[in-house]
Every structure is written in structure tokens, then in C-alpha cells.
Design brief:
Elements: E1 2-5, H1 13-21, H2 29-48, E2 53-59, E3 64-70, E4 74-80, H3 84-93, E5 98-107, E6 116-123, E7 131-135, E8 138-139, H4 143-152, E9 160-169, H5 170-177, E10 184-192, E11 194-195, E12 201-202, H6 208-213
Parallel strand pairs: 1-10, 4-5, 4-7, 7-9, 8-9, 9-10
Antiparallel strand pairs: 2-3, 5-6, 11-12
Amino acid sequence: MKIFHLAHQNSILTKFLSEIRDENIQKDSMRFRRNIERIGEVLGYELSKNLKYTPKKVKTSLGVKTVNCLDEEIVLCSILRAGLPLHNGLLNYFDDAENAFISAYRYHPNNSEEFKIIVEYFASPPIDNKTVLLIDPMLATGRSLVSVYAALKNYGTPKEIHIVSTIGSLDGIDYIKSHFPVNTSLWIADIDNNLNEKGYIIPGLGDAGDLAFGQKM
């Protein structure tokens, strides 16, 4: 698995990251969503440099220009609900992509620290020989991504997979490395070292879904 850790290099991305982490700025859910969306745009731009392009003649009012145009069938696949702002950021750039959505959440029996991933809803186009961007803003344990990939296989075999995430943990990245095919790339804004006893990223930013859309039952 190729890993592209964008915060290693200074850019405007680090400003957006600082704001989604800041507990005071987080109180503005609209700004939180917009910052996640902007991070998605940055990740999408960097990712686009590694895709396939084909020369195409474009006729203007004054002549013809040959331009390299994206030559990929792209499917954006987001994990609900936290993935929606990041999905929107990528869709701003890959605006003709197909879209897939999956519901995956942690189930804690008896409110214990142990949990399993429940997948209840999946809507996807066929993905055979297409480029799939698998979108999950918080790569904590990696188990949600692995569960989603297992469900995704029912819709075909993608040409390649690009995992797109805002913040991840070292443990989570190590976990997905052993469960995804070799033609997988991880595009991640920033990486933290630790998980707590409940499997949440430290320092992380908290629950991205709650911060974007309000607390759930």
C-alpha cells in the first residue's frame, strides 16, 4: 500500500486541520463541515496527479487545443454519515464520478469497550475495473474500512482503490495494510500515533459525525 501523508509538507491544508481539531472552532458545525470539505478538495487535487490522462482536442472559438483530460471511471464511496462532508469535497473536483454510500457503525454490546462493525445499508453502482475512492474521515482501528471493502466486493473488482481520510492512527493504517490489495493507495491529511482504550484516535478531534451533524442517540 502506498501512503501519501499530506501534512508532512506545509500548505494551507494545515490551517484546515488545525481548525477541525480546535475544540472552540468545532462548536461551529457549519465551519467544521466546510473545513472537512476543503480538506477533501485538497486530497482530491493531490490524488488526481496519480490518475490516468489522455490527450483530447478541444475546439475553442479561435482554434483547437490539445489538453490532457482525466481518463478514469471513478466511483466515490462514502461511509455514512461522517463521510458526507469529505465526499462533497471530492465530488467538487470529480464532479462526473459515480457515487456509492454505505452505513457502517460501531456496535458496543452492553456498552462495553469491545465493539463490532455493523453494515446495514449499501447503494453502489457496478465497480468492475473502475477506480474507487473509499472515503472515511477518521481511520481509527481500520475495522470499518475493512468491513466496507468486504461489502464492496459484491459489486465487482475495482481496477484500483484510493482510500481518502482526514486523520488516521498508526495502528489503523497497519491494520488496513494487511486487508487491502496491493493496488491500494492511502491519501491522508494527518496521522496521529495513538488510540485510546475505546479505539478512538488520540489526540484526533472527537466524533466527526457528531461534530458535523449533531449528537446521535
